[in-house]
Design goal:
Helix content is 36%, strand content 18%. By secondary structure, the protein is α+β, with helices and mostly antiparallel strands.
């Protein structure tokens, strides 16, 4: 295997890719039990991020999140309410009950602020049998939490700390950016290499401090990952690590300079303003550029027409997601397109951008009802009913409402208004939602 034998008849474009699409051979090592060139590469990765143990992920951060929760969740897991859907899915598959941490919500910016150590303490006091705390840092918009203090809280209570750092693989690699969750003392850190660094989509890395934790993680990782991993992806991880070790200092400095120079230029555009750090944020990742515009969806479409692909729009927010490959020219084109759009768009819709996140603050159950006795009802009829499915907007993939939470009027109204952007996990059509009978 594979069947193409390194050849792509009639497909010149794919010829080099097919040659590199290998599997476990005598000299290519085994990703599940590395002892040769993959083990050597992982040793380099451990040194780069300052972790004792490293594992390449070919299923991106989701693969690492699943393995971590299976390995360390126990009976109950404390989850920051703004975590990615993969954390919720992992807890559901592992049969772990959930207790929530609610990060402060800043109405001015429409963003969550940092998870506080005090909120972790409070959550663990309410869930003394919890074995795992999961937070996201940095989050999708670049908000970073005080991982060092949170890690200290978890150590005092004998609880593992898992940090979903999918959006922050670059942190800690150079002093021009904030430090990493690894440096801050998290037990398990999961990062997506492809999101900000030069690596193929679907590549990630798990960084684990303790050797015994690493052995347990590896056991579950090998249970859930494919037994036929793409060696194109493994090679991409290796190339990324070696490039950073060789040229990382200059590449990261150039990236910092590129983004810093662009920020001021966006601020002066008509109808466009930079969204600053939410109130109380511990720190933010400067590579994420969040803009406030009159209509995020319209701007997203108009940017695409002009050859500028933006990461995400929601309400009046526009997220420019930069990476190591971002150039001055990229951001200059974005600025020019935004200036042109601003001159031609004058519709200013009602600002509801914060509603999507603020409404999830209404009900935070310590556990979800796992009953199968459900029914589907029109969204507008769900007010006062207990939700029986996850509903989220993707991106960013943060559940707007979870099973066990009660629909308020704001939740039903918002979901009804934005059904085209939302995902209903029980197969809903956007007009109906699953509730418990």
């Amino acid at each position: 295997m594979p069947g193409h034998k390194g050849r792509a008849p009639g497909e010149e474009f794919w010829s080099e890719a097919f040659k590199a699409d290998l599997t476990e051979l005598f000299d290519t090592d085994d990703l599940s039990e590395p002892g040769g060139i993959i083990a050597e590469s992982l040793s380099l990765a451990s040194g780069l991020w300052g972790s004792e143990n490293a594992f390449y992920l070919t299923g991106s951060s989701t693969e690492g999140i699943l393995a971590s929760v299976f390995a360390f969740a126990g009976g109950k897991t404390v989850i920051a309410r703004n975590c990615h859907k993969s954390v919720y899915n992992a807890a559901a598959l592992a049969g772990a009950e959930r207790a929530f941490i609610l990060p402060p919500f800043d109405k001015k910016t429409g963003l969550f602020s940092s998870v506080t150590p005090e909120s972790v303490i409070e959550a663990l006091e309410k869930a003394p049998d919890a074995k795992l705390v999961v937070i996201t840092s940095p989050d999708y918009f670049g908000v970073i939490s005080d991982v060092s203090s949170i890690a200290a809280v978890c150590r005092e209570r004998g609880v593992k700390l898992l940090v979903d750092a999918a959006h922050g693989a670059h942190l800690g690699l150079h002093g021009v950016f904030p430090g990493s969750a690894v440096d801050a003392g998290a037990d398990i850190v999961i990062a997506s290499l492809h999101k900000t660094l030069p690596s193929l989509t679907q590549t990630g890395i798990a960084l684990i401090r303790d050797a015994s934790d690493a052995r347990r993680f590896k056991k579950y990782l090998n249970m859930i990952r494919t037994s036929s991993p793409s060696y194109l992806l493994v090679a991409s991880c290796d190339r990324c690590v070696r490039l950073l070790l060789k040229d990382g200092k200059k590449l990261l400095e150039d990236w910092r300079d590129t983004v810093s120079g662009a920020r001021e230029s966006f601020e002066g555009l008509p109808g466009v303003s930079l969204v600053g750090a939410p109130d109380g944020a511990y720190m933010t990742d400067p590579t994420k550029i969040v803009l406030k515009v009159p209509d995020g969806e319209k701007y997203l479409r108009e940017l695409a027409v002009r050859g500028v692909d933006c990461e995400m729009a929601f309400g009046d927010k526009l997220l420019l997601y930069t990476g190591l490959g971002t150039t001055d020219g990229d951001l200059s084109r974005a600025r020019g397109a935004l200036e042109e759009i601003s001159k031609n768009l004058d519709a200013v819709p009602e600002d509801r951008s914060g509603e999507a996140f603020s409404m999830i603050c209404a009900a935070l159950p310590e556990r979800a009802d796992h009953s199968d006795e459900t029914e589907r009802v029109p969204v507008e009829s769900a007010v006062g009913r207990v939700c029986a499915e996850h509903v989220w907007a993707y991106p960013p993939g943060i559940p707007l409402i979870c099973p066990g939470e009660v629909f308020g009027e704001a939740a039903a109204d918002f979901i009804g208004s934005f059904s085209g952007r939302l995902v209903f996990t029980s197969g809903g059509d956007g007009e109906t939602v699953a509730v418990f009978k």
